[in-house]
């Protein structure tokens, strides 16, 4: 019984480690899974290349390891934001999104009403992702544009259409496959233990 409890705990831990998130569009400053919990930018503290980000109808595409997460997107409008700038920006998030599925999630970020946001202004978008372990951080350096010529709206995709009813959609099985997989591993481990 103790063995089983330990195994369950190990499964939870490995899920937590794999269960971080990555930014898939546009590119972030950088990603280091072990350091993603480090505020304000997951250990990447200097501005890298800037992406032209649309003032209206923008989005950030992420790959979520957690099935559920609460996400805040903060915007600092200056050349080289400090930790204090990000802390201050968190008081007025540019967007707040709760997701309820793992893998691909498109997070809408419309900055058209954000104070100080206008064509040609440089800034940094900070993603604060809370999936139940500790908050995780990624940053994207941007130049805001009324017309972001290279922006690709087709990158906004979702792994499964969220369902509102109690019946899960037949195609939205990414999450349940993972759960089923975890249960299968647990059953296999338990079977192995009983066989001893
Ligand atoms: Cu995680």
TrEMBL record:
It is a lipid-anchor. The keyword Metal-binding does not apply. Its main location: membrane. Keywords: Cell membrane, Glycoprotein, Lipoprotein, Membrane, Signal. InterPro entries: BIM1-like, BIM1-like_dom. It holds the Pfam family BIM1-like_dom. CDD domains: LPMO_auxiliary-like (cd21176). Residues 19-159 form the Copper acquisition factor BIM1-like domain. It is found in: Cell membrane; Endomembrane system. Residues 1-19 form the signal peptide. GO terms for cellular component: endomembrane system; plasma membrane. This is Copper acquisition factor BIM1-like domain-containing protein. It comes from Actinomortierella ambigua.
């Amino acid at each position: 019984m103790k063995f089983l409890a330990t195994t369950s705990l190990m499964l939870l831990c490995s899920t937590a480690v794999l269960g971080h998130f990555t930014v898939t569009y546009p590119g972030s400053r950088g990603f280091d899974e072990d350091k993603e919990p480090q505020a304000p930018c997951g250990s990447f503290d200097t501005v890298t290349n800037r992406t032209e980000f649309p003032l209206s109808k923008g989005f950030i595409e992420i790959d979520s390891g957690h099935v559920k997460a609460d996400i805040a997107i903060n915007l600092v409008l200056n050349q080289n934001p400090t930790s204090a700038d990000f802390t201050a920006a968190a008081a007025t998030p540019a967007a707040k999104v709760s997701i309820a599925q793992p893998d691909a999630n498109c997070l809408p970020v419309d900055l058209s009403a954000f104070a100080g946001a206008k064509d040609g202004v440089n800034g940094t978008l900070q993603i604060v992702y809370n999936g139940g372990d500790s908050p995780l951080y990624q940053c994207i350096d941007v130049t805001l544009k009324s017309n972001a010529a290279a922006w690709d709206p087709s990158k906004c995709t979702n792994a499964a259409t969220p369902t509102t009813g109690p019946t899960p959609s037949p195609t939205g099985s990414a999450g349940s496959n993972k759960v089923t997989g975890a249960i299968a591993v647990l059953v296999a481990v338990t079977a192995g233990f009983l066989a001893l």
